[in-house]
UniProtKB/TrEMBL annotation:
It comes from Rugamonas fusca. The lineage of its organism: Bacteria, Pseudomonadati, Pseudomonadota, Betaproteobacteria, Burkholderiales. GO terms for cellular component: membrane. GO terms for biological process: proteolysis involved in protein catabolic process. Residues 1-25 form the signal peptide. This is M48 family metalloprotease. Its cofactor is Zn(2+). GO terms for molecular function: metal ion binding; metalloendopeptidase activity. Belongs to the peptidase M48 family. Residues 63-240 form the Peptidase M48 domain. Keywords: Hydrolase, Metal-binding, Metalloprotease, Protease, Signal, Zinc.
Length: 252
């Protein structure tokens, strides 16, 4: 997933309060810096809320595991996507059962222990989750989504930036029009993420197993959702890419 505000619904009030404090600046210009600054502010707010609830990094061994796996991917991202080398990366774990895993713009990562436990993820599968999320951020998917929204509805140019950021996640009409882009971005993050993790040294076939688990855990494995391709098609694509990467030199 890569919602701009990857928050459970019960935290919506917090976000709106945050928006109220910042609203004013118009949507244009849409820049990478603005998107990253907004993400950093929201991330800090998420961490503060989790901390207040006793849900921020409550299990040191889990946070250490996520950071260890993330470190290799972050180092590889600096090679594959050189402009990420200057990011102020942050990696945290949470016991909040309503979170899963995400990397906000600019390298702000949060992973739920419940999500990792529910799918019984191996380190390689956790690397695949993290690499997918890092790919969303490295490929500037939030910025691309805001640009598309502006192209679809030019009136947003005269409205507050924060309201557009909120609308791409919560305005049903706009979300429906952005759905094809969201699905394409998921496929792109699957592909680029698997390549990133493979470059970092993880065996491609073990990375791809994450998508098999995702498919098996899904109650609708053969259907696309509003913003994600069908789990079965993601598993098929990951397996095909892993096979290509695992082929000996000369057979690719
Ligand atoms: Zn995603």
């Amino acid at each position: 997933m890569h919602a701009f505000f990857p928050l459970p619904a019960r935290r919506a009030a917090l976000v709106l309060a945050l928006l109220a404090g910042q609203a004013g600046a118009l949507t244009l210009p849409l820049t990478d810096e603005r998107v990253a600054a907004q993400a950093a502010a929201v991330y800090a707010d998420r961490l503060a809320a989790l901390d207040a609830a006793g849900q921020l990094d409550p299990v040191p061994a889990f946070t250490a595991r996520v950071r260890r796996v993330a470190a290799g991917l972050i180092a590889q991202a600096a090679r594959d996507y050189p402009d990420t080398a200057a990011w102020r990366w942050e990696v945290h774990g949470t016991s909040d059962p309503d979170q899963d895993a995400d990397c906000m713009a600019g390298g702000k990562i949060l992973v739920s222990q419940a999500y990792v436990a529910r799918l019984a993820l191996s380190d390689a599968e956790l690397a695949m989750v993290l690499a997918h999320e890092i790919a969303h951020a490295a490929l500037r998917h939030n910025l691309r989504e805001l640009e598309r929204a502006l192209a679809l509805e030019p009136a947003w140019a005269g409205r507050p930036f924060e309201a557009l950021v909120d609308a791409v996640d919560h305005d049903g009409d706009l979300m429906a029009r952005l759905a094809p882009l969201n699905v394409a971005q998921e496929r792109e993050a699957d592909h680029a993420g698997l390549l990133l993790a493979a470059h970092a040294g993880w065996p491609p076939e073990r990375l791809a197993q994450y998508y098999r688990k995702l498919m098996r855990a899904s109650d609708r494995p053969y259907f696309d959702s509003d913003d994600h391709p069908a789990p079965a098609s993601r598993w098929r694509a990951a397996r095909a890419l892993a096979t290509t990467l695992a082929a000996p030199q000369g057979q690719r």
